[in-house]
Amino acid sequence: MVTRRDFIKCAGGAVAALGGVETALASTGPHLDPDRVGVLCDFTLCIGCRRCEFACAEEAGLPHGELRAYDDTGVFAATRRPDAESLTVINRYPALSADHKPLDVKVNCLHCEHPACVSACPVTALQKNALGPVTYDPWRCIGCRYCMVACPFQIPAYEYHDATAPRVMKCTLCQDRTLEQGRPPACVEICPQEALLYGSRASLLRVAKARIEAHPDRYVDHVYGETEAGGTSWLYLADRDFHQLDLPEVASTSPAEVTESIQHGIFKGFSGPLMLAALVGVILKSAGACEKCEAEAAARNEAGKEADHE
Amino acid sequence: MPRYLAIILGLTLLAAPAAASDQAVKEAHPHDRLHGHSEVPGAKGQCADCHLCAEPTAEDPCMVSCARHGGQFRGVHEVAEGPGVVVIDQLAARYEPVVFAHELHASMAAMSGGCTNCHHYSEDSGAIPTCRQCHAADRSEVDLSMPALKGAYHRQCMNCHLDWSGDNSCDFCHREAAEPGAPVAHDATDIVGIPHPVIEAVATYTYETSHADAPVVTFHHSDHVDVFGQQCVDCHRGDSCKSCHHGDQKPAEHARLDHVTSCCACHGERDCNFCHGREPMPRFDHALSTGFDLAPYHAGRACQDCHGDPRAFRYPSGDCAECHIHWEDGGFDHGITGLVLSADHEENDCSDCHVDLDFARRPSCDDCHDDYRFPAESPHCEICLNLMNEGDGRAAAPSCGHEVRRPVNPGRP
């Protein structure tokens, strides 16, 4: 069914195309919906119960133990990364002081506003949905794994163990639940502390800033994901600088914007290829001219030799 | 002059609908359903007292953080005013209801911040609303700036429990809910007749007695609770709270309460060896103790199904038809045993094959048919057996007329 919004978007796109106006649609995905969703994760509320890990594996159909197996806090001994069998993991960082509690940090795909993985994907298996999630279609994926290289947060994993139909594995914000059923993601639903909050990104940002304002002693004045990599759908609140939590300091422009501006600049108006063709032409022509010179010189030499001979 | 008239008229026209809509907003204001918010807009009468944005909507009311109402808490409350125990069961799904020892926590809180350690709001009258009067159980019904009921409960508990013990395991408060249909486990709310938080008791007690021949008495507490389905009050009748709670000391280990109802109250007619022995006794095993193996078809039954009320124990005679009365009228699905009766056998009486109605002994085909043996030795039956072991569990073996399938749903005739 075509909604009114979709119709207007299509009509707008068509008009823009007819007018020969370049739109930003080409590679950056659809225009983002002003009500696009996100998740606010407040690390200071997280208790490290790892229920989100369980719910995520259950929802994604990945191998998982019984619920009580996730009570094991021994896993916090090492810093973990999401992999092909666990799309989200909790890491624990020691308390800043005796007055604080240890901080539990949830790591998963942040669903960038302008995702580098989507930009890198040559077959649009990864797409940025206008409503927020970066979705994945395994039927389109050719397994090139460019997305894994492109991601500034190094999130996507690959099912190397599957020889026949390996998938790129990352959080899809429970795309079936959120986009089709309008339900919150599984991790949000199970979180006992409501440390995870699901809603429109704009209102989540407002809630995050209101919390920082209300408890300046509790939070560092920074909402991670507001501007990181051009903004992300997931937003983090913490009691310390985020680089101490192994969250990378990335520029406020999306890496995709940089690469796309170079690529698109070169190919703008087909000017790059034309210039290349012209350059090649000039080289060839000058090379041809030289050949002519050489031929003439050779002819002169021949003539000289003949004259000497005589 | 006509210009002034026009301005006044214009202002009146503008003001009238504004006043009307203001009234409509006040009447339909969603906060009326929230407890303690009867006087909205806020104290200064401004929407901006509570709303951050100029045009709040139902989807995005953009509320200011309540900040626990700035700690508005009025009145002085005694520990005894509150409930002793609160059973939190509004959200029971994965877990059983949580039994929260309110009085115990209130006593502890009285030593520090008092009621406001947890109760962050009370009405002007001093009345304290319950959590769910403000925090809706459904997250979609609350504004993002306010936790829903689940978050509100957990933050209250975990903020302190993490600080004190660092323990974040769910089973500190929760017990996993039993699978639907499974026998109901021990009900932790029945201790001395009132709801009480879960008490972890020792599984087995062994007592040394003065009897020279058989000095050891073994008491399997967990068997009595988990297997025999005894309630706490069945033995701990008349226990006082002081049996465990000694003033400001921690509850004593749940062991050797001298005043429990004695074993003889239930086992009075048994001989001495029922309890006394030379060695500690193993846990109860139905096959060992009674000679009737519950596996496989009776393994899932509760004791009461065969033995009735634990306080008026009844011994079945061993005649299957005593319980399985519907077998008489052909209502028994023989397929659950693994053997689907063919049309030729369906009309038989049970005793035709099960001689003397001894169902423990497995009938053999050659009891009646000289040439057949079921299941191992007859070539025909071998086919069936293979099908039973390897196939999808249901297949017809035309030569012997038997349809064979795997037992389904054992223990639920």
Question: Summed up, what is this model?
Answer:
The complex is a heterodimer of chains A (310) and B (413). Chain A has 310 residues and is of the alpha+beta class.
Write the layout of secondary structure elements.
The complex is a heterodimer of chains A (310) and B (413).
Chain A: H1 4-18, H2 25-28, E1 37-42, H3 51-60, E2 89-93, E3 103-107, H4 116-120, E4 126-128, E5 134-136, H5 146-150, E6 157-158, E7 168-169, H6 175-181, H7 186-190, E8 196-200, H8 201-214, E9 234-237, H9 255-267, H10 271-309
Parallel strand pairs in A: 1-9
Antiparallel strand pairs in A: 1-8, 2-3, 4-5, 6-7
Chain B: H1 2-27, E1 86-88, E2 98-100, H2 102-110, H3 131-134, H4 149-165, E3 204-208, E4 216-220, H5 221-227, H6 232-235, H7 264-267, E5 276-277, H8 286-290, H9 303-307, E6 339-340, H10 343-346, H11 350-353, H12 379-390, E7 394-396, E8 403-405
Antiparallel strand pairs in B: 1-2, 3-4, 4-5, 6-8, 7-8
Structure description:
In chain A, 38% of the residues lie in helices and 11% in strands. Chain A is α+β, with helices and mostly antiparallel strands and 310 residues long. Chain A has two domains: 30-253, 2-Layer Sandwich (Alpha-Beta Plaits), CATH 3.30.70.20; 264-309. In chain A, the strands form four sheets. Chain A has a three-stranded mixed β-sheet. A two-stranded antiparallel ribbon of chain A has the order 2-3. A two-stranded antiparallel ribbon of chain A has the order 4-5. Residues 10-29 of chain A have low confidence and may be disordered. Chain B has four domains: 2-64, no CATH class; 79-172, Cytochrome C3, CATH 3.90.10.10; 191-284, Cytochrome C3 (Alpha-Beta Complex), CATH 3.90.10; 325-405, no CATH class. Chain B has helices at 2-27, 102-110, 131-134, 149-165, 221-227, 232-235, 264-267, 286-290, 303-307, 343-346, 350-353, 379-390, and strands at residues 86-88, 98-100, 204-208, 216-220, 276-277, 339-340, 394-396, 403-405. Chain B has a three-stranded antiparallel β-sheet. In chain B, strands 6-8-7 form a three-stranded antiparallel β-sheet, with helices on one face. Chain B is flat and about 95 Å long. Chain B starts with a helix and ends in an 8-residue tail after the last strand. The A-B interface holds A 45, 47-49, 51, 67-68, 71, 73, 101-102, 184, 191-194, 197, 199-200, 202-204, 206-207, 210-211, 213-214 and B 52-53, 59-60, 62, 64-65, 67, 94, 139, 144-145, 147-148, 150-151, 154-155, 158, 162-163, 166, 168-171, 176.
